[in-house]
Amino acid sequence: MFKIKNILFPTDFSKTSLTAAEYAVNLAQQYGAKLHVLHVLEKIPPILAIRSLDLSRDKIIKSIDADARAHLDECIKKIKKHGDFEIISTIRKGIDYEEIIKYSQEKKIDIIVIATHGRTGILHTLLGSVAEKVIRYSKIPVLVTTPPSKT
User: Fold this and answer.
1) Are 27 and 111 spatial neighbours (Cβ–Cβ below 8 Å)?
2) By the 8 A CB rule, do 71 and 123 touch?
3) Which pLDDT value is given to residue 48?
4) CB 3.0 to 4.6 Å from 17: which of 11, 33, 35, 118, for a disulfide?
5) Alpha carbon 87 to its chain's center
6) pTM here?
7) pLDDT tens digits for 42-56?
8) H or E segment to which residue 21 belongs
9) Which CATH architecture has domain 6-145?
10) CB 85 within 8 A of CB 28
């Protein structure tokens, strides 16, 4: 029997990514599992921001880190409203899908719950899909959600 003890919910804080939170929360409640909420920052800050704002690299990095932590804390507050279960929040730096896979291996995650933006065509070709790469490289099940259709 498949036992779920650790669930990973990676998020970029977009409305689309947060739609997967509902599924992750439901699974955590159903199985009494820990919910790991992960946000991945780029390793290198945007150079354009450094030059255009005339700020030091350190100030930009600290600002980006603080902003990510604030968004993650807000996300955790919203998730906690839906039930009482253990939540572990983490921020990593690196390539998004690689860090998601690494984290899932390190923390013995049983399932990854991730949203996809549902891009197709040229946007998909140019940007790729984090969810698609996670599916491709993950050794564990991945539940992919799509945004609700606007009808």
Assistant:
1) yes
2) no
3) 53
4) 11
5) 14
6) 0.85
7) 876 655 555 555 567
8) helix 15-31
9) 3-Layer(aba) Sandwich (3.40)
10) yes
